Amino acid sequence: MLAKPNNTSQLGFFATLADQLDQKHSLFLLANRIEWAVFDAAFSKHYSSTQGKPAKPIRLMVSLLILKQLRNLSDESMVEQWSENMYYQYFGGAQTFTPKRPCVATELVEFRKRIGPEGIELILKESIRINGKDADEDTLSGDTTVQEKNITYPTDDKLYKKIIVKCQSIAAEEQVELRQSYSRTVKKLSIVQRMRRNKGGESKARKASKKVKTIAGRLVRELGRKLPANALNKHEMSLSLFGKVLAQKRNDTDKIYSLHEPLVKCYTKGKEHKKFEFGSKASFLITQKSGVIVGAMNFTETLHDSKTLPKVLEQYKRLNGKQAKEVYLDRGYRGPKQIDDTLLHTPRPDKNITITKRKRHRRRAAIEPVIGHLKHDYRMIRNYLKGTVGDEINVMLSAAAMNFKRVMNLWRTEAIRSWQLVYNFIIYGLQFLLPKLKVTF
């Protein structure tokens, strides 16, 4: 149910929260530049006007999502720090300081599910609008990267042991008596596997790994026989997933690398320090001159880079209201030269290349540090959100946070520059006037 508007006719005895803050602070300025009414109008359809408990204000929830990504915090840390920070509270629409948490951390999870990728895309659109003329370019740079998922490095042995543990928990939940739990057996086999590098340990470890796989298959089949019909329907997807993991071979396509994230893919990007990355592919478009992120999409499939461009260009048109004129890319996008009215440029040996085009190809490299900042500063280095929807949400929120941070840095630089001008004016004025006034100290 939608929240009722608060009565703000008398906010405090002395002053409002805004009067207690530095009104040139970048977060204070951002709070007054964002059009919060856009989110209220777009997300009101997700709430009932008559039924249910009154929800938290939409502005509060959107601000928490932005701040979480902007400050690189978890959901738990975000709601905790909100209760300690006056600027965070003002950004979320509070009129007085409240020394308590705004909501439970899991409410952020539910709000992300409620608005979905379409709602997050609206936040990205607002971040582009905030950047004004800097985002109004039609010559772009593009690149892709891998957004790694929060899973352990996958090995067959790890997956088999997880299957054994999950089968034991299913049996305990449904009160099914297994012929043998194999808990002690698996523990002994794990010790043998750790001695792989000892003399004669390689063959023993190999036999132990084979035995672990046999035990996992035995438990899956036993549950399939002993579970009652209603319980079998309940756990059918899990048992089917276990069967696929046990049946997959080394060179199979669409392999399963994680039980809790079965749609994760393996990407080989040729990096020296990290040969394989497990997650999804993210594609970005930035403006060539200013570096504003004007397109950000996630792809679960293992697509060629050039196959990601049509959807990202469609998103750019949707967010910016116009068609991109040119996109400069690296050699990973070899293939198409044009998509609709957009020209695609990839570097190739050409003695007759113009100076302008050469400079733009060099400028394309500026997208690499942008991706580096997205990963290390805006929560893309490891995605903790669930499923493919979580992948889409995390990519767009990271891009929006970086756009907001860019304009906040510009405001901070302008403030420092204006104070520097005032300081210089006073100093030079004194140096000019003091000799004429013949002031001595």
Helix content: 40-55%
Residue fraction in strands: 5-15%
Radius of gyration: 28 Å
Q: Which CATH architecture of the largest domain would you pick? A: 2-Layer Sandwich
**How many extended strands?**
7
Largest sheet: 7 strands, mixed
The helix tally amounts to 15
Task: Note the run of SSEs as H and E.
Answer: HHHHHHEHHHHHEEEHEEEHHH
Into how many domains do the coordinates divide? 3
Summarize the SSE layout with pairings.
Layout: H1 26-33, H2 36-43, H3 58-70, H4 75-82, H5 86-91, H6 105-130, E1 139-148, H7 156-173, H8 183-194, H9 201-226, H10 229-234, H11 236-247, E2 265-267, E3 277-287, E4 293-299, H12 305-320, E5 326-328, E6 338-339, E7 342-345, H13 355-363, H14 367-377, H15 387-437
Parallel strand pairs: 1-5, 5-7
Antiparallel strand pairs: 1-3, 2-3, 3-4, 6-7
Could you explain the architecture of this structure?
The structure is a single chain. With 441 residues, the chain is an alpha/beta fold. The chain has 3 domains: 18-103, no CATH class; 130-152 and 265-402, Nucleotidyltransferase, domain 5, CATH 3.30.420; 156-247, no CATH class. The protein has helices spanning 26-33, 36-43, 58-70, 75-82, 86-91, 105-130, 156-173, 183-194, 201-226, 229-234, 236-247, 305-320, 355-363, 367-377, 387-437, and strands at 139-148, 265-267, 277-287, 293-299, 326-328, 338-339, 342-345. Strands 1, 2, 3, 4, 5, 6 and 7 form a 7-stranded mixed beta sheet that branches. Strand 6 and strand 7 form a beta hairpin. Helix 1 packs across helix 15 (387-437). The chain is globular and about 100 Å long.
